[in-house]
UniProtKB/TrEMBL annotation:
This protein's GO CC annotations: plasma membrane
Described purpose of this protein according to its UniProt entry: Na(+)/H(+) antiporter that extrudes sodium in exchange for external protons.
Family the UniProt entry places it in: Belongs to the NhaA Na(+)/H(+) (TC 2.A.33) antiporter family.
Lineage: Bacteria, Bacillati, Actinomycetota, Actinomycetes, Micrococcales
Name this polypeptide is given: Na(+)/H(+) antiporter NhaA
Location, primary (coarse class): membrane
GO molecular function terms noted in the UniProt entry: sodium:proton antiporter activity
Keywords: Antiport, Cell membrane, Ion transport, Membrane, Sodium, Sodium transport, Transmembrane, Transmembrane helix, Transport
Length: 427
């Protein structure tokens, strides 16, 4: 009797595919995969596979007119998917979320601004005063990693009020928007305005397509994907970091769902299509739902794999320990972030009519602010742009990893204490 062979890697059933996608959409899963990618990169770069890993990182792949190394495909190509999802999240927050109304958005927005200015000031103060300092990396400690920070919050403090999570999410979203502006303004080389104009036209055409009936049909991918790829390629050729194209494309997607008009009495005037106010079933929600597994399961872990894959030896530790750039980044993330976020928020509430959301206490704001020091993805990206081709590029990776781990640990402990205190007071 012949036993039929079962392929080792057979195609998943539709139900299994849905379960896998739902798992990858989870905040915890994204944070865990990000950590796994970074740790795996460190192992591959420092073990017996170090030579093979280095050759793989620098191996060039040509896709049409674009010829990049594997590591650059990860940072310029795959990471654009992550920023596209960030753009979708931003447009939903702006159109139907926490950023829709000034009175609810102003507190975390000012907190995000403070969380950017304080780390930058600490970094510049250290590097301007120290011999051998370099102020060009001032933006490295200004970014917060959404996936990592939300994952830590979900792991250790799930019982905190929803308003606390909304504060952190809005804070991180605005933080990312500010980081995107910083990359576009300060870390773009030799702008080519012809290509920049083509990128803008491609984004505008994409915006028109997603607002037509094609957005509700199968032809959306046939038309929109080539426009998105054109926008990405033109942005790359324009001298702007290609991830900016991902954000721009995400921001132009409508986040308010159109509903068909209801039946009306004959005497009544024609009514416009109704709009929901929560963004459910909007194109932005559907695209975010579809692309988030790719971002969390592929784009960010692969980026972390190649970016964190640096060779660590005693000389690297020694140079990092005495480098003012490293100290500026570390203190900016671990100390500057929570001080800037909490301080700016307190000053706003102290001297204006702005208030914290009902049920949110200052100790919870302080605990959540420590998670702002988890820079990781965007900090690593800015660091690679600021110090590309220099000996400090590897130091930046090491210190961002260390600072993010320290900030996550401090934040986890603080959130545990806050949650315990809330539970005790409730009793």
């Amino acid at each position: 009797m012949t036993v039929p062979r079962t392929p080792l890697f057979s195609r998943l059933t539709p139900g299994a595919e849905r379960n896998l996608a739902d798992t990858l959409r989870g905040e915890r899963t994204g944070g865990v995969l990000l950590i796994i990618g970074a740790v795996l990169g460190l192992v591959l770069a420092n073990g017996p596979t170090s030579d093979a890993f280095e050759r793989l990182s620098h191996h060039h792949l040509a896709v049409g007119p674009v010829d990049l190394s594997v590591a650059h495909w990860a940072s310029d190509g795959l990471l654009a998917v992550f920023f596209f999802v960030v753009g979708l999240e931003l447009t939903r927050e702006i159109q139907v979320g926490e950023l829709r109304h000034a009175r609810t958005a102003v507190v975390p927005m000012v907190g995000a601004l403070g969380g950017m200015l304080a780390p930058a000031a600490i970094y510049v103060a250290i590097n301007a005063a120290a011999a051998g300092g370099d102020v060009s990396g001032w933006a490295v400690p200004t970014a917060t990693d959404i996936a990592f920070a939300i994952a830590v919050l979900g792991l250790v403090a799930r019982s905190l009020p929803t308003a606390v999570r909304a504060f952190l999410l809005t804070l991180a979203v605005v933080d990312d928007l500010l980081a995107i502006l910083v990359i576009a303004v300060f870390y773009s080389d030799g702008l080519r305005f012809g290509w920049l104009g083509m990128a803008a036209l491609a984004v505008a055409a994409f915006a028109l397509v997603v607002r037509t009936r094609l957005a509700d049909g199968r032809w959306l991918a046939v038309v929109a994907v080539p426009l998105g790829l054109l926008a990405w390629y033109a942005t790359l050729e324009a001298g702007v970091h290609a991830t900016i194209a991902g954000v721009a494309l995400g921001l132009v997607v409508p986040a308010v769902a159109r509903r068909s008009s209801r039946p009306r009495p004959e005497a009544s005037a024609p009514s416009a299509p109704e709009r929901t106010d929560d963004g459910r079933d909007s194109l932005a929600e559907r695209l975010e739902h579809g692309w988030r597994p790719v971002s969390a399961g592929v784009a960010v872990p692969v980026f972390a794999l190649f970016t964190a894959g640096v060779v660590i030896d005693p000389s690297l530790f020694g140079s990092t320990l005495v480098d003012p750039v490293a100290w500026g980044i570390f203190l900016g993330l671990v100390l500057g972030k929570p001080l800037g976020i909490t301080g700016a928020t307190w000053l706003l509430c102290r001297f204006t009519r702005a208030t914290l959301a009902p049920g949110v206490r200052w100790r919870e704001i302080g605990a959540v602010a420590t998670l702002g020091g988890i820079g990781f993805t965007v900090s690593l990206l800015i660091g690679s742009l600021a110090f590309e081709g220099t000996h400090r590029a590897e130091e930046v990776v090491l210190v961002v990893l260390l600072a993010s781990v320290v900030a996550a640990a401090i934040g986890a402990v603080a959130l545990r204490l806050v949650r315990t205190g809330r539970g005790t007071s409730a009793q």
